[in-house]
Amino acid sequence: MGRIVYAAAMSHVLYPDYYGENVGPHGRRMVEELIGVVRAMGRTLMAAAPDALVVVADDHLNVFSFDAVPALCVRVGRSVSRMVQADAIEFDRALDGLPERYPLHEDLANGILEKGVQAGFDFAASWSAPLDHAFLSPVSTLYGDRPVPPLVPFWVNCFVAPQPTAQRCFAAGRHIARVVAEGPWNAAVVATGGLSHFPELSLARVGQSDPAFDRRIVKLMEAGDHEALTALTAKELHESGSHELLNWLVLLGAVSPARARVRFFGEMGRIDLAALEWDVA
Amino acid sequence: MSRYETNVVLYRLKKDPAFRDRFRANPGGALADADLSDEERDAFVRWDTRKLNELGGSLHLLVSIPGLGGH
What we know:
The structure holds two protein chains of two kinds.
Chain A: E1 4-10, H1 16-22, H2 25-48, E2 52-58, E3 72-75, E4 79-81, H3 90-93, E5 101-103, H4 106-118, E6 124-126, H5 133-143, E7 151-156, H6 166-182, E8 187-192, H7 211-223, H8 226-230, H9 234-240, H10 245-255, E9 260-267, E10 272-278
Parallel strand pairs in A: 1-8, 2-7, 2-8, 3-6
Antiparallel strand pairs in A: 1-10, 3-7, 4-5, 9-10
Helix pairs in contact in A: 1-2, 2-5, 4-6, 6-10
Chain B: H1 3-15, H2 17-25, H3 27-30, H4 38-46, H5 49-54, H6 59-62
């Protein structure tokens, strides 16, 4: 019987130059401190030796276009490539130099997809979507130069309204935990993104975050108050710039009722950064 | 409301370097066949990113078009 042997969530632009350029020296210092914490978390993750690493993240209109935006999507197939884009902006320059392909845990991914559809989750499947910084910036920081276990990338539509609800994301996480428990593999689950930034997805408000909202959310995670977190509305997430919390809600469903431990929390102004672990052992 | 068309143009500007070059050289000409309202077309031609965002253009596309990203 499989277990979730490690669970964590963290911000996903782990790239000092981006914050140095857009925020200044204090932004650079803060993300460098976060990167140090995530590397330490990576040592705990590697010690847990998962057979598969489920990564829950969002697309930034890199992979899916307005032709079709899946609410929830499982990446299936044997391997996945790193997104490559000529003249990429800062976000995705964090991917330069990383391996071009990563193995997938085909059996676990297929199980999540097929059992999900049987259970009433109309998950989309992709055999070709590549991974952008939302996946690979945290994974590469956690693992450094060491081999990454087979991945199960899981996309949540965080940015193109109408997004899936907090409750639905939590339920998808419960489903992932059930599939892991029914299988023979130990899995780690990592969710990425946040905390608050880009409120209302308004260009005029880029540069603002909502520290009071973020402090409240982190306290709820520490307390294990998943009822309050699943009650978050699309309006609250949109107005505070917390769209990517939907990724974290999938993880919360996977680990519930575990409580979070805060490894890092920093209020930068443009965005608030965080890294949390859950006691799942 | 042609939010879809606005975002199709933004997505092409992000992903298609040849289209991006044509747009930079001659915005009106590059968009001649695009199904945009006059207001949307004008915002593209003036490269008024805030207006495009107000008209439904995706923030993540607007900030990530190589060489044109508007923060």
